[in-house]
Amino acid sequence: MNVAVHTADFRTDIRILSLVDWSRYRDPLTLIKPMLRNFFQQTVSHYPATLERLDLKWLPEALVESVGVPLATEFLVELLEQMAVAELTSYEKTLRAILPSFISDLKHQYFVPLSIRCAIERYRDWLTSNPGSTALAREYQIKGLMNLYQTDRHGDIGRYYLYRHTYFARTGTTTREAFDELLRQMFLSPEKKPIHMLELSNLQAALENSDDRLVFSRLLFPTLKVTEPVDVLTIGRGEEPQVVVASLIKDNRGERYTVRDLVNPAEIGMLHKIFLETGLSLNLGQREKFLVLLDNDEEVAGGVCYRMIDPSVAQLDGVAVLRALNGRGLGGQLLEDFCSRMASQGVRLINTQFISREFYTAHGFRVNERWSGLVRFLQPEEIEE
């Protein structure tokens, strides 16, 4: 643990922290007491200028950073119960006073990790020095900070929170409120991916210009090279409307196509016909899911058939496009769009069979004996055990 002190207070003959008199862990209070004494109390005693700089809230925050919200909450609740009946020093009383609100915040709102807070603060400093920066420059700066502070480890909600308080911090009130509501739902439903949330559609509808929509699209699909804004559509009414993300791709002639989830039962028949034309079979069981490729006339021009083995593994049954469109690079772009969608939903691995092996290996799939087929890992750090 490091201690930063004011220059005027610096003394070379003082050692603040030490492992002398350590003992085995017994309970929360016996762990916290020496931290308060050796770090806060002794630091202030030797360097009085640090009194207004040291914050006792750092202790519970460090605990959350170390073990996560659930375990930290359990620890702090037990600590608070012990403090209620123990004889406390002034520092311990101060810590006891701040714990109830801290615990309540952990239960009711997203805990913002230190790395994300640092990234936001550094972005604001950069923006102050570059007030006229373009949308692309701002996005580039954010991505650089994400890499510097390794914010990917904080998941979707960490990434969305970072963008909300950097790039989208100066958007209109309606946009900020829609973003805050999405973050609230992400906190309340951590098992549900934002791509499936109605609030995502509301946020996109609130975006005011094309630059913001494009940055939003790349936030939604961080692994896809998005050059056109995606559309987030709400299909149906009632308690559970379907949220559909429609992305745009171009063939090698520059013609545009839309990729989205299948929403019309009639599209299954058209997709089935295309699969048969290309020599592939199309499974129509209850577990099968589909993406469709639509041309400018909203006609089905191809698609993807897949199923979920579990929340982290997808089985890809096939990718097909109309024969008349062969050679335009649509199959590869459709596959990349599918992989990006899966990555945004937390899928770590896609498995497929050896049919069209050359096509799949050109897009990152490799032979894998464990899965008896071709596999593509969607997470860079993913290593097969």
CATH C-level category of the largest domain:
Alpha Beta
Find the count of extended strands (DSSP E, 2+ residues): 9
- The termini sit apart by 35 Å
Report mean pLDDT, rounded to a whole number.
Answer: 88
Unreliable spans: none
Helix content: 40-55%
Structural category is alpha+beta
Q: How would the global form be characterised? A: elongated
CATH superfamily membership of the largest domain: Gcn5-related N-acetyltransferase (GNAT)
Rounded to the nearest angstrom, the radius of gyration is 26 Å
Order of helices and strands: HHHHHHHHHHEEEHEEEHEHEE
* Percent of residues in beta strands: 15-25%
CATH architecture verdict of the largest domain: 3-Layer(aba) Sandwich
Gist?
With 385 residues, the protein is of the alpha+beta class. The protein has helices spanning 28-46, 58-67, 69-83, 90-108, 114-129, 135-149, 155-164, 173-188, 198-206, 210-220, 265-277, 330-344, 357-361; strands at 231-235, 242-250, 256-261, 288-294, 300-310, 313-321, 349-352, 366-368, 373-377.
Q: Can you characterise this structure?
A:
With 385 residues, this protein is α+β, with helices and mostly antiparallel strands. The chain folds into three domains: 7-108, no CATH class; 113-220, no CATH class; 244-385, Aminopeptidase (3-Layer(aba) Sandwich). It is built from 13 helices and nine strands. A nine-stranded mixed sheet has the order 1-2-3-4-5-6-7-9-8, sandwiched between helices. Helix 2 (58-67) crosses helix 3, helix 3 (69-83) packs antiparallel against helix 4 and helix 7 runs antiparallel to helix 8 (173-188). It starts with 27 loop residues before the first helix and ends in an 8-residue tail after the last strand.
